[in-house]
Amino acid sequence: MVDTYCPPEEYECHELFESETICICAPTHPLAGKTVDFKELNPYRLIFREEGSKSYLNLRSILHAYNQDVHNFASFVETGTINSIHNLVIENVGLSFVYKFVVQKNLDRGVMSQIFINDFKCKTFINYAWMKNSFFAEKNREFLDICKHYLSGLGDLNL
């Protein structure tokens, strides 16, 4: 599964679903569950993947689209894994931007909260891709069919 461009001359790529990027925080964070303007996030610490990672590049692109940057925040923490981001958010170290489908269970369990941002909409297609002419191409197509069938049975997940 990828959230990035796959050159069609090298990869076979199929859309699985579309996911929303959201701002998350601990349930005890002052902005938990509130609707705010983007600049109201600036006094807080931002948590994100290391510079150069695809996740960091996505975040920077999102922030720049809203005339923001990581340096607009009071401070920031760079970390190497999405799990460490989740743990730091849960411990109320700061806030982060992630795909909703990745944290949906934590939101449902109440260990994370969403911060709603006025006029903020960011959606990305999540695709299933494999190398063209791969020995495993047929098995990948079978797996893709299973994924699509499973996802269609879930209805509108609002991911």
Architecture overview:
The chain is of the alpha/beta class. It has a domain at 21-123: D-Maltodextrin-Binding Protein, domain 2 (3-Layer(aba) Sandwich), CATH 3.40.190. 30% of the residues lie in helices and 28% in strands. It contains four helices and seven strands. The protein has helices at 54-65, 82-90, 100-109, 137-153, and strands at 11-25, 35-36, 45-49, 75-79, 96-99, 113-117, 123-131. The strands form two sheets. Strands 1, 2, 5, 6 and 7 form a five-stranded mixed β-sheet that branches. Strands 3-4 form a two-stranded parallel sheet. β3, α1 (54-65) and β4 (75-79) form a beta-alpha-beta unit.
H/E element string? EEEHEHEHEEH
Describe the sheet with the most strands: 5 strands, mixed
**Structure classification:** alpha/beta
> Using DSSP, what is the number of strands?
7
CATH class of the domain at 21-123: Alpha Beta
For CATH, the homologous superfamily of the domain at 21-123 is named as Periplasmic binding protein-like II
What is the fold-level CATH name, i.e. the topology of the domain at 21-123? D-Maltodextrin-Binding Protein, domain 2
What do the pLDDT scores average to? 91
Number of helices: 4
**End-to-end distance:** 15 Å
Question: Unreliable stretches, pLDDT < 50, 5 or more residues?
Answer: none
Global shape = globular
Strand content: 25-35%
The quaternary organization reads as single chain
* Radius of gyration over C-alpha positions, nearest whole angstrom: 17 Å
